[in-house]
Amino acid sequence: MMKRSVPVVWFVFVVSYALCAGPVADPGSRGVDWQRVKAKVEARDWAGEIVRGMEQSVRGVMGRYDHPPLGKTGWFHDYFCGDDAQRLIFDPQKPHEHVCPGCGRVYSGAPYDDCWRASVHREINAATADSAVLWRVTGQRSFVEYARKILLWYADNYEKFEVHGKHAGKGRIHEQSLDEAVHLVQLAEAYWDICPELTAEERDVIVRKFLVPDALFIHGQTWTIHNIHSWHNAAVGLVGFATGNEDMVKAAIDGECGMKAQIQRGTKEDGFWYEGSIGYHFYTISSLQPLYLAAKAQGYPLEGTDKFRLMYTAAIDFTFDNGEFPASNDGWPDQNIRNLGAYYEAAAGHWNDSQAMNLLDTIYRRGRRSHKNALLYGPETISARTSDSSRSTLFTDSGVAILRNDAVNAYLKFGPYGGGHDHNDRLNLVLFAKGHVVIPDLGTSGYGIALNGKWFRASAAHNMLVVDGRRQANCGGYLVSYADDAVEAGVRDAYEGVDIRRRIRLRGDGIEDVVWAESDKTHQYDLFYHVRGTLEECSAALEPAEAIKAGNGYDMQRDIRKGRCEKSCELTWRLRDANGGIRIKATSEAPFEVFVGTCPDNPANKEQSFLMLRRTGAAAKWTAEIVVGE
Ligand SMILES: [Zn+2]
Ligand SMILES: [Zn+2]
Questions:
Q1: Cβ-defined contacts of 478-482 (< 8 Å, 24+)
Q2: 3-class SS shares of the chain: helix, strand, coil, % to 5
Q3: How much is the pLDDT for 131?
Q4: CB atoms within 10 A of CB 128
Q5: Is 611:594 a contact under the CB 8 Å cutoff?
Q6: Ligand 2 center–CA 326 separation, angstroms
Q7: What secondary structure letter does DSSP report for 7?
Q8: What pLDDT is recorded for position 1?
Q9: Which of 83, 80, 160 is CA-nearest to residue 112?
Q10: Which phi-psi region, left, alpha or beta, contains residue 214 (left: φ > 0; alpha: ψ -120 to 50)?
Q11: In degrees to the nearest 10, what's the CA dihedral of 236, 239, 244, 249?
Q12: What is the pLDDT of residues 47-62, one digit of tens each?
């Protein structure tokens, strides 16, 4: 799937590079106004603190490692515990010992040692980029010397790193073209910032033996619209600008899959990145931001990139009231926009965007400005602006509605299939109340562990109707109606011959949730809810039930009990993360079975409860009152 022949542009680059006299001595601005940055540091305590924090962490890395490690590197997603999905602890002192913080198991050898080496490269790369910034801001020689030393080390050793990797694009210093690109972005920026301090010979060595070959290696793998390929562009474009190679810049921005094409074709009309998870949305912004700002500063024409700004503002509306994003698809749990101030520093500084300003104002009521982006790109002062946005939001193109009132926020997904990161969960519900997600989507864990496919991506882990125990087809749903307090949507193609609908209406104390399905044939219909709490009461008589021996998440259910309901069933749970409880009263015109029990949360050392309503027949319909109370 990733195989493509080497593009012709390779040849063009090599020729144009060979013809030019050598890399430029001063590439000009990459979008940072160093005079303004220094003025902020003089005038603002927070800016001085950021500088001191960077100094401390850079000195820490300088002291920990003499130089980057030689040897094979591993894949980030393999650095997780296979038993409980926890990320292993990276200890800079222990290259062969990787401890799970959950169960204490100690991992050693490949691929864990390889992942450890990749982490060391990551620390050093970040320190090199920061070091170059610190040189610009403080003028201390030790910082320019460190950045110079590391860049020269990569130039001297780049050839020793073999092409390797098994996942979506190959790397040399890293395991994936993605990590290779992220790493090159940092080192290209470091090179850019210290460029005027380097000798012509040093520039030549770094550019010829490392920056350009690594950029060409990465660019040779760019062929589609995808967050990874957007990172490729960032690396290639920044190397192009930093070294004065116009062909590279052109390929990275105006190429067939260049930055403009990524923005135009990869971003939906409502501002969302097409891969369907907020993690990838921001990960893509991270790749676009440095190249966009550099291109702007360099006067490179950027027509057709208006949707880039919308990417920032759309995400602000895609949150629950505590700032948390729904962990839909391969989104990581507990992601909160209030931790993403760094992005909005750039948006507020660059466009003077009022939504970004308001968000920063909310964020900094509780904490200080502490990210490098505040220093480099942010406005000198933050001031809230007036706004009159409606509380509920419909993202028409992405196919997501979030209804909001004072009691709850309810998320419903019905949009188009989003590709490999999609969880095939049309009409999935997520409910937020009392400051927490109480009926969750679990998102993802490290992709490397078995639990990810077995559970987090499985149908039975989602709050939706599952037909015949099967996974939904790759498909989109449709919107029936939307208002500030109600949304109805359907899906016809998830299961052949079955039309499913869901209508959610806000109540003062929760939601009314109606789910129904129709077909010509008999099916087993299972309506799932997952509650972050403990079951306290159930109106139906329950008896222990056998484990369900089916895949697709059913085999992850534990402590199963079941009962029969003639018309309705009422259950209450005590909430795990908040005071109070949640009550679900499910009513159906036909008798149905009810299953309750526990199942893994994310991370999997936490537990949650599940409720499964089952009916076998041609049609099924439940009306559920979901009430959050004391
Ligand atoms: Zn473990
Ligand atoms: Zn999911």
A1: 478/414, 479/394, 479/396, 479/399, 479/401, 479/414, 482/394, 482/401
A2: 40, 25, 40
A3: 98
A4: 30
A5: yes
A6: 10
A7: P
A8: 35
A9: 80
A10: alpha
A11: 20
A12: 999 999 999 999 999 9
> Which ligand ends up closest to the CA of 444?
2
Residues in the chain: 630
What's the DSSP call for residue 418?
-
**Average pLDDT, consecutive stretches of 10 residues, N- to C-terminus, the chain (630 residues):** 43 48 90 97 97 98 97 92 91 96 96 97 98 98 98 98 92 96 98 97 97 98 97 98 97 98 96 85 96 98 97 94 89 89 96 94 92 96 76 93 96 92 95 97 77 91 98 98 98 98 97 98 98 98 92 96 97 96 97 98 93 98 96
**Coil, strand or helix: which one is 52?**
helix
For 37, the enclosing helix (H) or strand (E) is helix 34-43
Cα-to-chain-centroid distance, residue 229: 15
Whole-angstrom distance, CA of residue 378 vs CA of residue 359: 13
Q: pLDDT value at position 2? A: 39
Torsion of CA 42, 47, 52, 57, to 10 degrees: -150
Reading the block at residue 564, the tokens are 């029969």
* Burial tier of 596 (Cβ tally within 10 Å: 0-12, 13-18, 19+): buried
Domains of the chain in start order, with CATH, are 25-222 (1.50.10.100), 340-389 (no CATH), 393-629 (2.70.98.70)
SS3 per residue for 59-113: HHHHHHCCCCCCCCCCCHHHCECCCCCCECECCCCCCCCEECCCCCCEECCCCHH
Judge whether 563 and 593 are in contact, CB under 8 Å. yes
Nearest ligand atom owner, CA of 553: 2
Cβ count within 10 A of residue 420: 11
- CA 529 to ligand 1 centroid distance, Å: 27
List the one residue out of 159, 181, 294 whose CA is nearest residue 230.
181
CA 625 / ligand 2 centre spacing (Å): 23
CA of 65 to the centre of ligand 2 (A): 40
- Position 8 scores a pLDDT of 44
Tokens describing residue 488: 């109805």
Residues near ion ligand 2 (Cβ under 5 Å) = 423, 441
Which ligand ends up closest to the CA of 100?
A: 1
**Residue 490 dihedral angles phi and psi, to the nearest 5°:** -145, 170
The pLDDT of residue 11 is 45
**DSSP letter, residue 546:** P
- 3-class SS at 582? strand
pLDDT the model gives residue 559? 96
Distance (angstroms) between ligand 1 centre and the Cα of 97 equals 14
Centre of ligand 2 to C-alpha 423, Å, is 5
